[in-house]
Specification:
This protein is mostly helical. The chain is about 65% helix and about 5% strand. The chain contains 6 helices and 2 strands, in the order αβαααααβ.
Length: about 100
């Protein structure tokens, strides 16, 4: 019987933790956390008829990193954002838009 009680407390504790994390995530979203950053990486890359792998090699990152930046799942570090902007001959502000416009 004691074993069942322990499992009950473990499962209950996990459920409470999950609900707390979900509430925190929801609060952050409602609080205006940054959305995915819009960018021109794909447009600039395709204008030059480059594959993601080619750009990745030029930047010293993986193709998956370029894909994640283009789809907005990953915001690049400042050094990578600067390198991308310089590579395409634009400013960081022209390439990346944190306002979503």
């Amino acid at each position: 019987m004691r074993s069942c009680a322990r499992w009950f407390y473990v499962v209950t504790g996990l459920a409470v933790a999950f609900v707390a994390v979900a509430a925190i995530v929801q609060a952050i979203r409602e609080d205006g956390s940054p959305e995915a950053m819009k960018n021109l990486v794909r447009a600039l890359r395709t204008e030059r008829n480059m594959a993601q792998g080619q750009l990745a090699e030029a930047m010293g990152v993986s193709r998956q990193t370029i894909n994640s930046i283009e789809t907005g799942r990953y915001t690049p570090s400042l050094p990578l954002a600067l390198a991308l902007a310089r590579y395409f001959g634009v400013t960081v502000e022209e390439m990346f838009d944190d306002q979503g416009s």
